[in-house]
Amino acid sequence: MTDASSSVDVSGGAGAPPRRHRLRAAGSYLGLTPFAIYVLLFLAIPTTLAVSTGFFTEDGTLTLDNVTGLFAPNVLAAFGASFFVSAVTAVVGAIVGALVCYALLGLRPDGAVRSFIDSASSVLAQFGGVMLAFAFIALMGGQGLLTLFLKDQLGINIYENGNWLYQVPGLLPVYLYFQVPLMVITFMPALQGLKLTWAEANATLGGTRLTYWTRIAIPVLAPSFLGSLLLLFANAFSSYATAAALISQGAQIVPLQIRAALVSETVLGRENMAGALALGMVVVMVVVMWGYSVLQTRTSRWQR
Amino acid sequence: MNVGAEPGRITRVVILAVVGIIFALPILAMVEFTFRSGLSGGHTLDHWTGLVSEDAARTYRGLFQAIGNSFILAIVTVGIVVVILLPTMILVHLQFPRLRRVLEFICIIPITVPAIVLVVGLAPVYSVVVKLLGGATWTLAFAYGITVLPYAYRAIQANLDAVDVRTLSEAARTLSAGWMRVLWFVLLPNLRRGVLAAAFISVAVVLGEFTIASILNRRNLQTALLQVSQSDPWVATIFALLALLLAFVLLLSIGRLGRDRRTS
What we know:
With 304 residues, chain A is an all-alpha fold. Chain A is built from 14 helices and no strands.
């Protein structure tokens, strides 16, 4: 408390009466209320509503039907597909992103290449959604640039086995387009935290490039790499817009299941099913993000 | 001396070139697509020139309206960040250092609660909002203020940590400046970079937002783009490219802001 009061005491002097002090403190607390009310109305209440409606029926009585509905075959399949897409794009994205980070090592942080790649990464990591869907339809849709090139020049038809771009497999290349840049943003600080002295120590002790990476760099980087991998998983698992723009029919992944439950006008009580699905998503997200923060604390030890 | 920590020149160039080319391809494909005369076949400038023709304003009225909506949303969202988040962060930093962890936790919740989950609970909240404030699009900014919270918090906090806010405000208070004066003439100029970075990233996020607008049936840039793409995919792609370019400029300038701080 001494910390907080010192700034108040400057004007009042050390001998300011405690009552005035208390009034000031109360006034300061009042300053926190706009934010508190805002967060309550638009974050706390919506989140609570989202994860709790699943336990009610349309007319407000408690039920477990929606939550048990999560174990229906089509919902389980959607969770499976979501896990599949998130895991594959997280692993591939993390590896490719880490390679890019490695390639950037040793470049001046304020140089032209670095600052271009930094900015491009932060744009592309945000690039999910409708515009990304357009880009991939233009590239590898039925009449896409790459599709036509492969067909006309090399005689390869990438759609021999059906129109996969507009189904779950199509999400893989598209999601990677924002996963790799996200990896570059989150993993670069860790790679930069490697101290040159460690490499020098390795070299003076007769170590090779291989021993530096296997004995020093990779063990030090492992928690950070796994943490970033979890963040990528969470990022893919929670993204909706790209899939919604690409896949107009069906509900192959969980976010699309929520869309189907929310916009269906024919079946009553589906809104509560959306609540149960939201609960399922939040449970997965909380577990993944908890793992991320645990790994993050382990990482920050090295970055000091 | 190369002690093995850094990649060789060839390795670096190969990795960056391969990844760079792969990542440039979808953008190039978009550009090429805007010059196609049909879905396949020859090329034309018509789709670009059509945008500046006389009847463009009428043909694309819906789209222009949606772009207007998105800009209003961006402005109101930045307003929420500056009027609600920024003072709270300064207050916590100066008066309640022990609440800092709590504030940080609140601000990163939106990463754990995806937009598609939040929107399930936002639907009933917005049925109340519509009754109180009407169904105008700008009200969506309340939800967007939450979506941008993690980004805006990080940008402002980085600046708060880099500037000795406490000493500055104490010095000003000793010289008998009131709190409003301290905030406006002492703290804001020092936090300029963080606030600008927070504003830019908020604008970029809001212009790209689709999930909440689409489920709540509002028209913003992204929902309109998807709708227009059904009838005129070329124009939809042109506007997607322009939006992407704008986001790139915004985020590039955030990078610049950060660098200025280090050199000055």
